Amino acid sequence: MSDLASRDVEKLETASLRERVYDQLKSLILSNSLLPGQQIVIDQLARQMGVSHTPIREALAMLELEGLVVMTHYKNARVSKIDADDVREVYEMRRILEGWAAGVAALSFSNQEIQDLVKLKQIFCQQENKENFKALLDADILLHDLIINQIDNRLFSRISELVNLQSRRIRTLVEAIQGVKHADTRNQEHCDIVDAITSRDPVRARSDMELHLVNAQQRTISALEEIKETE
Fold it and tell me: How many domains does the chain have?
């Protein structure tokens, strides 16, 4: 193998390692295994992952662009914090993006996609699921993803993906604290959105989605205040 080919292979291997480190760190942050404000020590992380500093620094740079970490003066990093302003910004963007998407979905969902929504509604409505935190959270995420993915617009997809990263971290943190608290209210809001879309009513679908996100913002800020009181 020529020297040039060897260098090309090494670059590919390095890029692949960076992506694996990035995916693992991103998963830890979005699941709140790495908590908001927690320090990420590169030396320690390199030892734990069995890799050099380079792919970790490259992965952290990618996560910093996504707003998930903040680099410190000592060339380490912290998981970005979540405060009331972050929540307001995320939910303002979600209302703009998902409100419009829900209206579009009411007119563009196929009959099969409508049936998928009906199955999701059954999860929200079934009595036995009201204490099943994971089932409700998974159904919640899937409902919003189905609606967002209905939009065939590359710029919308890039923007919504960035907003969704922050939103999922916030939702996971808050709902892990609150558990099934407010479950009845959230479930009803989700059922209202499904009913509007399956009725092919774009105005109602957009209105119900926006109302749901306004209420979700208020619940989230309230939960953050509860977290602060316990710190």
Answer: 2
